[in-house]
Amino acid sequence: MSPKAKILRLNPITCVAHGMCAELFPERITLDDWGYPIIDPAPIPPELEEHARRATDACPTLALLLERAPAPRVPHR
């Protein structure tokens, strides 16, 4: 994973299920039966980052975030 890899994160408390994110970024976001987003946890590839940014920018409640992926954990020996 690249050090600049990004992931999508959802704040379920502020989300009110408008569904705009899934319309703008169907490659990584689907909706459940109630219209709430289900986010693919995989890092966003660079070629899809602009689509992810557009979906986060369009969220009316700011519930969807695009942030840097956490560094992989190294097991202790």
Structural account:
The chain is α+β, with helices and mostly antiparallel strands. It is 19% helix and 21% strand. It is built from 2 helices and 4 strands, in the order βαββαβ. The protein is globular and about 45 Å long.
Quick synopsis:
With 77 residues, the chain is of the alpha+beta class.
Structural class: alpha+beta
Through-space gap between termini: 22 Å
Strand content: 15-25%
**What composes the largest sheet?**
2 strands, antiparallel
Output the keywords.
77 residues; alpha+beta; two-stranded antiparallel sheet; 21% strand; 2 helices
List the helices and strands and how they pair.
Layout: E1 6-10, H1 20-24, E2 29-31, E3 37-39, H2 49-58, E4 64-68
Antiparallel strand pairs: 1-4, 2-3
